[in-house]
Each structure stands twice: as structure tokens, then as C-alpha cells.
């Protein structure tokens, strides 16, 4: 019953939950949601009514249903109902089949997920169950690399101290590992099934919600109440990594999980043109009613004053009153309904059949495009819907994920600077940098990562010569990190919490400086084939404020501090003697940043024993302080991290997907604004923004990372004020009303051509950039003036949460729409959808969302167009999308070629279709004035039935499927050609009105010119030419020739197929009517057909041919002259592009302008390329021994099995005793000492190394 929506039991809103482990009956009584999920729109019961309801929301379908009802009344209908039933059923069935196909794919995906298997504790054994059968309160066992079944509270894991590692790619797009930890009190349960089956803890926690960064609850067990936090929970969608097994209690299942709470519902999407067509159909219907009303009124008067006296020749129906006025009124009312049927061809059902057919073929062009096929992964482009193609040509906002969408999730060591010498650039004999990839040969190494390539032999030579600085550089990289080694198939594999760290440590290994192993107090390395072990004294952990990490190690009595971090932070801490080397390194850093690389500076300092001991004692006091612990620890770190010696800098490439920078650059030139919504932090996202040319150094970039609503509001106002000042400074604009919404269009400024609107001269002197990022020196002269490429905005997820409130969201939108690019960092899946919705609802612009993971599904479903990339994060995004392909760069071709062509074609199709049908239908209207307003048809009924099917359909279908203004290559090389679609220039209400007027005028000429030519003419035999059949055939023939030649004038792309269709249609018209009007039909069917012999009689007269020539000249010559005049004196962007494609007139000028732009020297200082995705908390985990490398743990267990057993009880008592100390310390502070994934919070707990070591029950030899 719950499957049927209207029979679902009303759900009571939850405030909190309370469950008991291993008590399925009590938990089931509370009727919590099961673990089965559904992302589909329909089921067997709801498909037909729900789908028909959605289809009849399209007014045209409702309009044709109404016509069908009228045609079922024989008294008023002159057309058989089957002429409407068949096309209507065809359109409805075609759409229903497509929708069913899409939904079946969703059902299959749901079934695949729901039928995954996992193990649960039932009684005293492990039982394998399907995911859909898992209930809240069940204890489940997860295996390594297994997806988490539901949201679960950790009970125990295979790792020491209940730690486990997870990958959250499907939640936030990040592939770096995060740490979660079970409660200390439940760790001892381990994997003992008998103990787990008796585990009877009660858990009280918050109701289901969509906050990924928060979990609040309490676990009550053995008369103890233990607090539960986010670090104790594994969320559905995450994946267990580097952990053999983990047990947990299901707290949220199925639709209640945080992943599903962040996922949007699949919606029925319709295009902007569909919405416009709905309004147009409504307008046409009113126009039809007006025409019918005119005919009704005229019929009433005619029947009353004329027809009443001629009833002997034109008798009234028996059900009509014999009273003159009442009978005329009844007759006119019936005529009203008859004219609705006759004149309904202003919007024939064939319109929607043709539109669906055109969209289907346009979708196939996308499917069949070999240039959008990604061969490495065998992924072709796929149009998963056929109804949204033209909307691809009208996109104004793109919302993109970063990780896996713009980037490859691969970090590689690319360049470095060591003591003023730069490595990584290959030069030729003349000293010029070699940039041609074909001339570069990678160096072969004995051991390296698959993606690592190195070309510069200078660094290899320096290592071989024993360069001391190079040796120190790589020694630092092999020691200063929190990477954990693990042996796999006899080789060392690194498990890093940050992909940056993995890249640096792997690069050091490649060059012969191998990190081998670590314990809580030592690091083992192999430096140029020589083994060495360093005592690990301290890890000075990374955090967002420090932007650096340090390690203090000791070897051979020498104590050294190694430090790596942001260049701005390292500079402040350098010894005064390092200025010169820092200046040289600065130049290298600027070059690295210009190349879009992520940079870190490396430095070191030698410490004497007394100095270190004094500092260590101070750090211990800070770690045990009960007040302002965090501040005191950071101050202590500051004291030791000073007077550093600079070693150099690293440059890591966060590998973009191929062609991403060029793609984004062209999309920006097409007037499309790109917003990146990512789970990464600000520095990472900013650096990628520079790499992919989304952000440039000539942009005015603002950052919002405030942490409360008042500060965010204040920052938004500050940025708005700075924007106003900048606009007034650079442009001839004086903003009088500063409260009015800011908009470039209000000032007449084209955002694609800022330089054209700049002030002629700017004052000399220095101008400080409002956001303080850089200083600009303005010299006199246009070439030296400050460069400006628009505004950019970066905002963190925490600030975004406040900015999306009802109070501030319009302010955020105002600033966002003023920017060329917006980057939202640390955002949740739900926030992504909220940002998309904000723009959709208030800007009324067409939006596109693109992503590759489950965390992108909500925004993909929310946007007008959703695009999924078949990437490394599963197929959830693809299944939720409207279009999919293998690489981000194909988006450029999808929009600039297929989207633009689709919009162009459907626009030309619609305006021509309305033109030809108004021209056809209005002839009935004019004929009414000459037929006593009797609803008599002008044309042969066969012609009425076949006009839109055979005689005018194929040329317009060829126009809608094949036409193109310029080639695909030209479309991509000239992105500004995309802007007409954004401005609705090819089809709008004005163009529709012009098409209607054109059709009405055409119908007048086609009707009245033949009428005047035959009204007083006779055939050679003396018979009149003014009979209905001859006149109707003449008008029909002229109609076919004129509208098809008009179609030819509309077409830009003439092919052999189009020639065949165009001339074939005209020829078929003549052949069809020769056969239809011949005596053969009369002899076969033995019926008196009034049109027999009409074709031969009409076509044999010179009057017809003269009338045809005269009508075509009157109608087509003005159109030809108008087009010639427009193209000659008022050319559009398309006209210029077509001319340039033919004569290539602009290429030289464009090339010169491009070179000048590239050679232009920016006057802004290059910003730091620092970006490091490390997270705080891993240092204490390592030094405390909570997190051990697999090899270290294994070696220790092999060396000391007996010692471990003997000292187990002693160790355990020490462990429990010191746990109390630890818990007391923790309770005195709101910070948690074991929070490695704490970017959402800014509260951290630090303990001294001595204390942390004491807390761990590990024995030493």
C-alpha cells in the first residue's frame, strides 16, 4: 500500500531517535525507513496517469484533445476523427516510451544498489543480506574497499584504537583519505561475533537531516553515557579504505541517509521554447476564436438576410428552427464549431510530431559524433533525453564540479627550485625553452608512478654529483609529511591523507630518496641506496591558519627542523641572510604560478640540544594547559619555526583533463558564466581556477570566508562598494543610485569587450587594489594602463550557508552576476543545488550543471540541463544526467556546435512552420466571404489531409535536421556566434508575430491573385474557369510552390539530399494530383469524384502559369531583396561569420590581435600559487601511535610476540589509567584530539608527544 502515493501513511516529524542494538523488534516498532532507495519517477501503477498528466501540461496536447472531442460530433465535423487520433496517440506514445526508457534505467540502477550484499550480525553468526533488507539498529560488517551500506555508528575496526580510513569521493568529490574512529569503550569488541551479538547499547541521536558535517548523539552502555560525534560515524556513499574490516550499527537507512537527503528528486524538464510555445498556442487559440467569432457573426447575418430566402437550394438541417432569426442564430453557432475544426491547422498536430522527430535526430547527431568519443575509456557521448537539445544553445550559466570534472584526480611533481636554480624546464642549445611535446623525451627511472614524467637531466646530474642542496631538498620531502607506507606485492605503497603529499613523497622516491617506514617515534628512509633512521621528535601539524607543517628529527646527535608551506608563511620566518635567495626563488614561484602549478616553499633549521629541550618543555605545558590551549600551542610552534634557511620550492601539477583551459576560455568568450562548486578548500580551488583560465591575474578577485552571518553581510556590502568604485574608476560611468542592483547592461558595458568601454586616459600613480591582492602601477599611455578582465568571487561553504539565507541571498546573487567567474569552496551537495536554484529562480537564465560523482546529482537534477561525466566516481551522475560523455572538453562541442545548431534549426523550423500553416489556413478564412460563411473548405479534402504530411513536411524537416549557418570548426573558433541563442534572437514573440503577419499576407496574395485572374476568364471551349474545384487546385498548387521556395530561401546549407527533398516534393504534388484526379480512380472505385480531370484542365491553360509566375514574383522577390539588403548593409554576426568562412577575411586580423594579447605584459603582480589539501590532525595520530603503518605494526608483532603477551595486562592497566587522564583533558575542552577531518570546524586539541605516547598500549623492546 505504501507504494501508492495517496495511500501512504502520514509521517510524523521526528525530533530525535532512540534505538537499541540487536533488538530488531523494538526498532521495527518505530517504523523507521528501510534501506531500499528509489530515484525513479514512476512505478507500474503511477506511470500512465502521471506521465499523461505531465504530457497534457503541454497546452498543445490538451488543445488537440479538445479538437478530437469536437470531431466526434458529426453535426459539426467535416473531418474524420482518425486524422487527429493517430497523430495525437503517436506523439503521446513516443514521449511515454522515451520517459519509460529513462526511468527503467533508473530502476535498474536502484536495483543494482539495493541488491548489493553485506554481512550482518544475527544471533551468533554473520549472515549475508541484501542492502534493501538492512534495518535501523542492525550491526553490519564492512570489508576493505566496500561501500558503506547505510549511515552507521562505528563499533570496532581492524585497526589499532578503532581507527578506520574512508574515501568520500561520492559525498564531496575528494579522493584523499579521511580518518574515522570508534569509541574507545567499544573497540575491545573487535570482530568477536559472540560479544557483538550480545552488544545491547542504546543510542539516542538527532533526527535525519542533510548536514554532512554534523552528528550529535549519545551511546549508553554498561551504565555509561558516551558522546557520539561526526568522527564516530560512516556515511552511506563513502568507501572503506586500508581497513580490513569494520563493524557498526545502522542509524539512518535508505532515504533517511545524509547522502539521499542531499539528493534531489528527478523532475520533468521542459525547454524555454516549450514554455514559449505554450503561450503561443494560447495566443493562437484566442486568434482562432476571434476568426471563428467573425465567421459566426457574418454567418448569422448572411443566413438571416440572404440564406433564409435560398433554403430551397441550400436547405437547413432538420434540427434547425424554421424561424428566420432563431434558425440563423442556431446555424451560426454550429458554424462556429465547424470553423474551429477547419481552421485548427494554424497549429496542426504535425507540428509536435515534427518537433519530436527533429529533436530525436538532433540527439542522434550527438550520439554519433566521433569527435566526442573518449577512446581511452571507450565512452561515447550520449544524449539521454531528446527534449532539451535546443536549450543547449541558450546556456548562460554553467555550474561545474572540480575534482574529476575539471581535473583528473592526479597530482604530479612537475618543477622545482633549489637554492636559486630552477629544474623541470628543458632548454635547447640556444637557451630557449623547449615546449614541443614531441621533442621532449621522458627520463626512464627504475621506480616511478605511472603518471610521473620528468624531462630535465640537470636535476639527475646534480643528484649524481652529490649536490648537497639537492640532497637536503629531497631529504626534506622524504621526512616532512604524514604519509603511511604499506607493503603491497613486495613494493611500498603510500597511503596519503593528501594527494599533494603523495605526489611529493613519490617524487622523492623516484629520485632515490625513499621513505620506507615509520613508527610513532622514528622515520626510516633509504637515501641513495643508504638506509637511515631518524628519530621523530615532533610533528608540528598543518592547519588552515598556519598553512605549513614541520617535523623535528634527530640523527647522529644533530637536531633538524624541516618545514614546508605557503611561500607567504615561509618568507616571514626566514633568516635575514636568505633575502637574496628568496628573491630568486620568488621569480621561480611566479613562473610556476603563471603555469598554473601548486607551489610550496621548503626550509630547514638546525637546533642545538639545549634550545630544543627548553622549547619541548614549553610545548608540553601548552599542550596540558586548561585555558586557550590551541592558541598557546600555536604560539609555541611560532617560536621554533623562525630563522629558517630556504632550500627551495616545489611545483605540483593538479592534472587538468585535456583541453579544459581552452574549453573554458571559449565558453567564456561565448558569454557563458562559469561557477565552480567544489568540496576543496579555497587555495586549491583558486589555484585550479588559474590553471584552467577560469580566473586570471588581470581579474579583480574577492574572497568571502567569514564565519558568521553578520561578518558575511558586512563583507558582501564591502565587496559591493569596492565593485562600484572600480567600475567608476575604470569606465565612463557615474552610478547615481547606489542602492539599485548592479548590472553591466544598465551602463551599456559589454562584459566581453571591457577595453572598448574604458576611459581614454587614467591618472598616473599607484592604485592599491581594493581587495589588497596586488598593487598596480598606471603609467600614462593606453598600453601601460591597468588591465581589467572583470571580477571573480571565491566563497567558502561556511560563508555560503549564511549568504544563501533569505536575508542575504539576493546580495550574493547581485555580486555573483557581476562576476565573470564564481568559485564556491567546501560546499555540500545540497548547497550546490541551492546555488543553482538561486540563479534559476531569480535570473531566469538557462543553466547547466556538470559533474561526475554522486555529490553532483542534486545540482544536475536541479539545473535546466544536467551533464554527467563518466569518471572515476561511479555512474550516479551519468544516470541522473540529460547528457553524458567522457571528458569536460566535449562540453565545448556540445554547446557551441550541437547546442547552437539545434537552437538555430528548431527556431527556423518553428517560424517557417507557423508561416506556412497560417498561409494555408487563412485561405479558408478568405474563402468564407465568398461561400456564404458556410464552413465550406476551399481545398480538396485529400489535399487538406496531406498538406502537412507530404507536401510541405520534408523540406522543413530537412531544414530542422541538417541546416547549419557555418561549419562545426567555425562554430568553435567563433564563440560569439553563440550569443544569439542566449538573447533568444532567432525565435521569440516578435519573430513569431512577424511569421504570422508574413503568413497572413501570403495567404492574401495566394488567394486573391488567382481569384482575380479566374473570376472573369474562360477556357478555350467557352467554359468558365471560376469553378470551385479548379480554383481550389490552382490555389493549392501555387501554395505548395511558394511555401517550398520560401523554405529554400530560409536554408543556408544546401546538400544533395535537400535538393532531392525540395524539388521532389513539388514534383510529387503534380504526380499525386494527376493520378488522383484521373479517370483511373473513378473506374477503380466507381464513385463520382468532383475533381476528376481538374489537374489536366487547369495546367493546360496559360492563365494558370502566368498567375503562378506573378504570385511567386510578388511574394518571393521582396523577401530576396530584403535579405540581400540586410546582408549587404546590416549584417548580423552570423552573416559576417559565413562571409569569413567563405573568404577567410578575418583570420589574419584575429591572429595578430591574439598574438598582441599574449605578448601584453600584465602590470599586476602574480599571486601565490600555494595550494595544499592537507588537513589538520594527522600529526597527533602518528606521534601518539594511534595510526601505525601496516609494515611497522607487522614487524613489531613478529619481533615481540612473547613480550606482547607478557606485558599485556600491565599495558592494559596503564592504558586504562591514562585513558581517564585523556578523557578528563578532553572534557575540559570542546576540542577533540583525534579529528583529522576538521575543515568544517576550527577547534583542535593538542597534546604533548610524551602524553600521547603514554596513552598508547604498545610495548617497546
Automatic annotation (TrEMBL):
Topology term for the membrane: Multi-pass membrane protein
Domain P-type ATPase C-terminal: 878-1132
SUPFAM superfamilies hit by this protein: Calcium ATPase, transduction domain A (SSF81653), Calcium ATPase, transmembrane domain M (SSF81665), HAD-like (SSF56784), Metal cation-transporting ATPase, ATP-binding domain N (SSF81660)
Needed co-factor(s): Mg(2+)
Annotated catalysed reactions: ATP + H2O + phospholipidSide 1 = ADP + phosphate + phospholipidSide 2
Keyword Transmembrane helix in record: yes
Active-site residues, Swiss-Prot/TrEMBL: 401
Record domain P-type ATPase N-terminal: where: 19-85
UniProt biased composition (Polar residues): 1185-1194, 1224-1238
Region (Disordered): 759-782, 1181-1261
Low complexity: compositionally biased ranges: 1195-1209
A GO term, aspect molecular function: ATP binding
Keywords per UniProt: ATP-binding, Coiled coil, Magnesium, Membrane, Metal-binding, Nucleotide-binding, Phosphoprotein, Translocase, Transmembrane, Transmembrane helix
Keyword Plastid: no
InterPro entries attached to this UniProt entry: ATPase_P-typ_cyto_dom_N (IPR023299), ATPase_P-typ_P_site (IPR018303), ATPase_P-typ_TM_dom_sf (IPR023298), ATPase_P-typ_transduc_dom_A_sf (IPR008250), HAD-like_sf (IPR036412), HAD_sf (IPR023214), P-type_ATPase_IV (IPR006539), P-type_ATPase_N (IPR032631)
Residue ranges crossing the lipid bilayer per the database entry: 280-305, 333-355, 909-930, 942-962, 991-1011, 1031-1049, 1061-1084, 1104-1125
Compartment(s) of residence: Membrane
Biological process annotations from GO: Golgi organization; phospholipid translocation
Binding site for Mg(2+): 401, 403, 852, 856
Enzyme class: translocase
UniProt GO cellular component terms: plasma membrane; trans-Golgi network
Domain of life: Eukaryota
Family to which this protein belongs: Belongs to the cation transport ATPase (P-type) (TC 3.A.3) family. Type IV subfamily.
Protein name listed in UniProt: Phospholipid-transporting ATPase
Native species: Adineta ricciae
Amino acid at each position: 500500500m505504501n507504494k501508492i502515493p495517496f495511500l501512504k501513511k502520514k509521517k510524523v516529524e521526528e525530533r530525535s531517535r532512540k534505538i537499541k542494538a540487536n533488538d530488531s523488534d523494538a526498532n521495527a516498532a518505530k517504523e523507521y525507513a528501510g534501506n531500499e532507495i528509489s530515484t525513479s519517477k514512476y512505478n507500474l501503477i503511477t506511470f500512465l496517469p502521471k506521465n499523461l498528466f505531465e504530457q497534457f501540461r503541454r497546452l498543445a496536447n490538451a488543445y488537440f484533445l479538445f479538437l478530437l472531442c469536437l470531431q466526434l460530433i458529426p453535426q459539426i465535423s467535416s473531418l474524420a476523427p482518425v486524422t487527429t487520433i493517430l497523430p495525437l496517440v503517436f506523439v503521446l506514445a513516443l514521449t511515454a516510451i522515451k520517459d519509460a526508457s529513462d526511468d527503467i534505467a533508473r530502476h535498474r540502477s536502484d536495483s543494482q544498489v539495493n541488491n548489493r550484499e553485506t554481512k550482518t550480525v544475527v544471533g551468533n553468526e554473520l549472515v549475508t543480506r541484501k542492502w534493501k533488507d538492512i534495518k535501523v539498529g542492525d550491526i553490519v560488517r564492512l570489508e576493505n574497499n566496500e561501500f558503506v551500506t547505510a549511515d552507521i555508528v562505528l563499533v570496532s575496526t581492524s585497526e589499532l584504537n578503532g581507527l578506520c580510513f574512508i574515501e568520500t569521493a561520492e559525498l564531496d568529490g575528494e579522493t584523499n583519505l579521511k580518518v574515522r574512529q570508534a569509541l574507545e569503550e567499544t573497540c575491545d569488541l573487535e570482530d568477536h561475533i559472540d560479544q557483538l551479538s550480545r552488544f545491547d547499547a542504546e543510542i539516542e541521536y538527532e533526527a535525519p537531516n542533510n548536514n554532512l558535517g554534523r552528528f550529535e548523539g549519545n551511546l549508553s552502555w554498561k551504565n555509561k553515557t558516551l558522546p557520539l560525534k561526526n568522527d564516530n560515524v560512516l556515511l552511506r556513499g563513502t568507501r572503506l579504505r586500508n581497513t580490513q574490516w569494520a563493524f557498526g550499527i545502522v542509524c539512518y537507512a535508505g532515504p533517511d541517509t545524509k547522502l539521499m537527503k542531499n539528493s534531489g528528486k528527478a523532475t520533468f524538464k521542459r525547454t524555454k521554447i516549450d514554455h514559449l510555445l505554450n503561450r503561443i498556442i494560447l495566443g493562437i487559440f484566442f486568434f482562432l476564436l476571434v476568426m471563428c467569432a467573425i465567421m459566426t457573426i457574418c454567418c448569422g447575418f448572411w443566413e438571416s438576410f440572404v440564406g433564409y430566402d435560398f433554403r430551397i437550394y441550400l436547405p437547413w438541417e432538420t434540427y434547425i428552427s424554421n424561424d428566420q432569426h432563431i434558425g440563423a442564430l442556431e446555424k451560426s453557432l454550429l458554424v462556429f464549431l465547424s470553423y474551429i475544426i477547419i481552421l485548427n491547422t494554424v497549429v496542426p498536430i504535425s507540428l509536435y510530431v515534427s518537433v519530436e522527430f527533429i529533436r530525436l535526430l538532433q540527439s542522434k547527431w550527438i550520439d554519433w559524433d566521433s569527435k566526442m568519443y573518449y577512446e581511452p575509456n571507450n565512452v561515447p557521448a550520449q544524449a539521454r533525453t531528446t527534449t532539451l537539445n535546443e536549450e543547449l544553445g541558450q546556456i548562460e550559466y554553467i555550474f561545474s564540479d572540480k575534482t574529476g570534472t575539471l581535473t583528473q584526480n592526479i597530482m604530479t611533481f612537475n618543477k622545482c627550485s633549489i637554492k636559486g636554480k630552477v629544474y623541470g624546464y628543458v632548454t635547447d642549445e640556444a637557451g630557449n625553452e623547449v615546449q614541443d611535446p614531441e621533442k621532449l623525451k621522458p627520463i626512464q627511472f627504475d621506480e616511478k608512478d605511472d603518471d610521473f614524467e620528468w624531462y630535465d637531466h640537470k636535476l639527475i646530474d646534480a643528484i649524481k654529483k652529490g649536490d648537497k642542496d639537492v640532497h637536503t631538498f629531497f631529504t626534506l620531502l622524504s621526512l616532512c609529511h604524514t604519509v603511511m607506507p604499506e607493503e603491497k606485492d613486495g613494493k611500498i605503497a603510500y597511503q596519503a591523507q593528501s594527494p599533494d603529499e603523495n605526489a611529493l613523497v613519490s617524487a622523492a622516491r623516484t629520485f632515490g630518496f625513499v621513505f620506507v617506514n615509520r613508527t610513532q617515534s622514528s622515520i626510516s628512509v633509504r637515501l641513495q641506496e643508504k638506509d637511515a633512521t631518524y628519530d621523530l621528535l615532533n610533528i608540528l601539524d598543518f592547519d588552515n591558519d598556519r598553512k605549513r607543517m614541520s617535523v623535528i628529527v634527530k640523527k647522529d646527535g644533530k637536531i633538524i627542523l624541516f618545514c614546508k608551506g605557503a611561500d607567504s608563511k615561509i618568507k616571514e620566518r626566514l633568516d635575514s641572510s636568505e633575502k637574496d635567495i628568496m628573491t630568486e626563488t620568488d621569480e621561480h614561484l611566479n613562473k610556476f604560478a603563471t603555469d598554473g602549478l601548486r607551489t610550496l616553499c621548503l626550509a630547514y633549521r638546525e637546533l642545538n640540544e639545549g634550545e630544543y629541550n627548553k622549547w619541548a618543555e614549553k610545548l608540553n605545558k601548552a599542550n596540558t594547559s586548561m585555558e586557550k590551549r590551541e592558541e598557546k600551542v600555536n604560539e609555541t610552534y611560532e617560536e621554533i619555526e623562525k630563522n629558517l634557511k630556504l632550500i627551495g620550492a616545489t611545483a605540483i601539477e593538479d592534472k587538468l583533463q585535456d583541453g579544459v583551459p581552452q574549453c573554458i576560455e571559449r565558453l567564456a568568450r561565448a558569454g557563458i558564466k562559469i561557477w565552480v562548486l567544489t568540496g576543496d578548500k579555497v587555495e586549491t580551488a583558486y589555484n585550479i581556477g588559474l590553471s584552467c583560465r577560469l580566473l586570471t591575474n588581470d581579474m579583480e578577485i574577492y574572497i568571502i570566508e567569514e564565519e558568521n552571518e553578520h561578518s558575511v553581510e558586512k563583507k558582501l556590502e564591502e565587496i559591493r562598494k569596492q565593485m562600484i568604485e572600480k567600475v567608476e574608476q575604470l569606465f565612463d560611468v557615474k552610478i547615481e543610485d547606489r542602492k539599485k542592483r548592479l548590472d553591466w547592461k544598465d551602463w551599456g558595458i559589454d562584459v566581453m569587450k571591457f577595453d572598448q568601454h574604458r576611459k581614454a586616459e587614467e591618472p598616473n600613480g599607484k592604485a592599491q587594489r581594493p581587495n589588497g591582492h596586488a598593487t598596480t602601477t598606471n603609467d600614462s599611455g593606453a598600453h601601460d594602463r591597468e588591465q581589467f578582465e572583470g571580477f571573480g568571487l571565491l566563497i567558502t561553504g561556511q560563508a555560503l550557508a549564511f549568504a544563501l539565507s533569505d536575508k542575504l541571498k539576493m546580495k550574493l546573487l547581485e555580486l555573483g552576476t557581476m562576476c565573470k567567474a564564481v568559485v564556491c569552496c567546501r560546499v555540500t551537495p545540497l548547497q550546490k543545488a541551492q546555488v543553482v536554484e538561486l540563479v534559476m529562480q531569480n535570473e531566469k537564465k538557462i543553466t547547466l550543471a556538470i559533474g561526475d560523482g554522486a555529490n553532483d546529482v542534486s545540482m544536475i537534477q536541479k539545473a535546466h540541463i544536467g551533464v554527467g561525466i563518466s569518471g572515476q566516481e561511479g555512474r550516479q551522475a551519468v544516470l541522473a544526467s540529460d547528457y553524458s560523455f567522457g571528458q569536460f572538453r566535449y562540453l565545448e562541442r556540445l554547446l557551441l556546435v550541437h547546442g547552437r545548431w539545434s537552437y538555430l534549426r528548431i527556431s527556423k523550423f518553428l517560424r517557417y512552420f507557423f508561416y506556412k500553416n497560417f498561409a494555408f489556413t487563412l485561405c479558408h478564412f478568405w474563402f468564407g466571404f465568398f461561400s456564404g460563411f458556410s464552413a465550406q473548405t476551399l481545398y480538396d479534402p485529400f489535399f487538406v489531409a496531406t498538406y502537412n504530411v507530404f507536401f510541405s513536411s520534408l523540406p522543413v524537416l530537412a531544414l530542422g535536421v541538417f541546416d547549419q549557418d557555418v561549419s562545426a570548426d567555425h562554430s568553435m573558433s567563433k564563440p560569439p556566434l553563440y550569443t544569439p541563442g542566449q538573447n533568444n534572437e532567432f525565435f521569440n514573440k516578435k519573430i513569431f508575430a512577424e511569421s504570422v503577419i508574413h503568413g497572413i499576407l501570403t495567404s492574401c496574395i495566394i488567394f486573391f491573385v488567382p481569384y482575380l485572374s479566374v473570376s472573369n476568364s474562360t477556357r478555350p471551349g467557352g467554359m468558365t474557369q471560376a469553378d470551385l474545384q479548379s480554383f481550389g487546385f490552382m490555389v493549392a498548387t501555387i501554395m505548395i510552390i511558394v511555401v517550398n521556395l520560401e523554405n529554400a530561401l530560409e536554408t543556408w546549407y544546401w546538400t544533395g539530399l535537400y535538393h532531392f527533398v525540395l524539388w521532389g516534393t513539388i514534383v510529387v504534388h503534380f504526380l499525386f494530383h494527376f493520378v488522383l484526379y484521373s479517370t483511373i480512380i473513378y473506374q477503380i472505385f466507381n464513385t463520382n469524384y468532383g475533381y476528376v480531370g481538374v489537374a489536366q484542365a487547369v495546367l493546360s491553360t496559360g492563365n494558370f502559369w502566368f498567375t503562378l509566375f506573378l504570385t511567386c514574383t510578388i511574394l518571393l522577390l521582396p523577401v530576396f531583396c530584403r535579405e540581400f539588403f540586410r546582408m549587404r548593409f546590416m549584417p548580423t554576426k552570423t552573416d559576417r561569420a559565413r562571409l569569413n568562412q567563405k573568404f577567410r577575411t578575418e583570420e589574419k586580423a584575429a591572429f595578430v590581435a591574439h598574438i598582441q594579447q599574449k605578448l601584453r605584459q600584465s602590470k599586476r603582480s602574480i599571486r601565490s600559487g600555494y595550494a595544499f589539501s592537507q588537513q589538520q590532525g594527522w600529526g597527533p595520530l602518528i606521534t601518539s601511535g594511534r595510526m601505525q603503518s601496516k609494515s611497522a605494526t607487522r614487524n613489531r608483532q613478529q619481533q615481540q610476540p612473547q613480550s606482547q603477551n607478557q606485558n599485556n595486562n600491565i599495558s592494559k592497566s596503564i592504558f586504562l589509567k591514562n585513558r581517564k587522564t585523556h578523557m578528563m583533558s578532553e572534557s575540559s575542552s570542546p576540542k577533540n584530539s583525534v579529528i583529522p577531518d576538521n575543515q568544517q570546524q576550527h577547534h583542535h586539541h593538542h597534546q604533548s608527544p610524551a602524553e600521547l605516547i603514554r596513552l598508547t598500549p604498545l610495548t617497546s623492546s
